[in-house]
């Protein structure tokens, strides 16, 4: 267990990625984490003026993968076309392997699938470690990809995420860095030219396999207009949390349906439970109200996707959904093998139909560039050259100076810079600061940001962060209002952050078990709230309704 954790954790922070040897030779600096690779050093050390901010050859950061001539299979096609399924078939029959997905829910789904098939499979995400005895396979979130192990088979799912401004670089890292004989890459055809260009220089053998949708997706000509037209199996998509609860309430007020909800800030365990309740035919929660958190790879029993809007706030501004976002979300309807083999898609408002229809007809725009982010090794060396351990100016300056090839863009580091400004005030090492910066904190959420600040301050002051000093177990209660619910979601995020830190600074964050159990309680209380918001007395109401109708019939 310990060995596995050490391996995945060291790889997760990407400390060992870079071919630092040439730089070390030039600068006569030694770092404890560097590895030596003759192929990298001989090619790169020939450069007379090595420029740390030159990121034009990121494939050379990964000597392990470069030692192999990988067979790369691109499984591309529309949603629900069997891409992931076919890649997983290869993984299941391999002697060792790894699945890298964009979401914890997908990683869970895959580890469950493999274990059910008697292929022991670990589950490793930023906040979970489930090690299965004798496992040669792991299902992970892409940030956790271990680039030091050799696999027979690896999968990177939803590869179009390389274009994501914040997380794209982790997909690029996995794509360039996983050391595997076979690499199966699944996703949107829009990513093919970019992936081919990126891998051209690596010497890998790339084959493209195109897929067709396994079940039809029918764009409806009429909008929904009113929630009284909602049917079992419908999923209403909207992008604000408030809207989700308003729509749930409106639908439940009609007294015909109960709604499960899925959105980004719900704890992942709660999201899974809500999705499972909706998928279960025997359950009364037969309608789903969700954000685009359902947009990737999940298999849900949705018959009809109904967009309540085609606009969303993306953290910077309110904008129209892109063609690929619309297709990705719409594609959740009518999953192959589900009880709704034909999917339908429409909007609430008739004005949105032309955009919906044209988007579904259009190919997704071709991806131009993949995300990139300097490794810790590079940033660390750069800080020595700048003679400072202030992380904010180092990162800002590095990003400003960074030189890239046209196939890449530098990741959006706004969130990291916000954290850097906070941790720079504390007496921490550069690596500690870096860890806090890459942690999954939501700096736009006040409680979450406060949690990080307290953790960092206590860690800097005392070297040890005890959860009980900041949080009283037993103080959590079922929320009574939307505001209290939001607060509980934020507390869950803080506890989640504690668990994340506890895997990386084990001795200083010793209360992982307590944090995990309190996280679980948060999820249960949130679920309890979601159940109470729902129309509780559906069974009684149905009985009452049928009784009234019967009496009415008898009265003739
Ligand atoms: N050959 C097959 N036999 C049985 N079930 C299949 C087969 N191919 C796909 N499926 C099932 O169809 C559903 C959709 O497949 P899959 O998840 O692989 O689609 P996808 O193309 O990866 O979709 P997305 O782009 O949404 O991730 C899944 O439930 C999967 O198990
Ligand atoms: Mg898939």
TrEMBL record:
GO terms for molecular function: ATP binding; hydrolase activity; RNA helicase activity. One of its GO terms (cellular component) is mitochondrial degradosome. Coiled coil: none annotated. It catalyses: ATP + H2O = ADP + phosphate + H(+). One of its GO terms (biological process) is mitochondrial RNA 3'-end processing. Keywords: ATP-binding, Helicase, Hydrolase, Mitochondrion, Mitochondrion nucleoid, Nucleotide-binding, Nucleus, Transit peptide. The keyword Nucleotide-binding applies. Residues 206-380 form the Helicase C-terminal domain. Its main location: mitochondrion. It is found in: Mitochondrion matrix, Mitochondrion nucleoid; Nucleus. The keyword Oxidoreductase does not apply. Gene3D superfamilies: 1.20.272.40, 1.20.58.1080, P-loop containing nucleotide triphosphate hydrolases. Pfam families: DEXQc_Suv3, Helicase_C, SUV3_C, Suv3_C_1. Its cofactor is Mg(2+); Mn(2+). Its EC number is 3.6.4.13. Homodimer; in free form. Component of the mitochondrial degradosome (mtEXO) complex which is a heteropentamer containing 2 copies of SUPV3L1 and 3 copies of PNPT1. This is RNA helicase. It comes from Dioscorea zingiberensis. The lineage of its organism: Eukaryota, Viridiplantae, Streptophyta, Embryophyta, Tracheophyta.
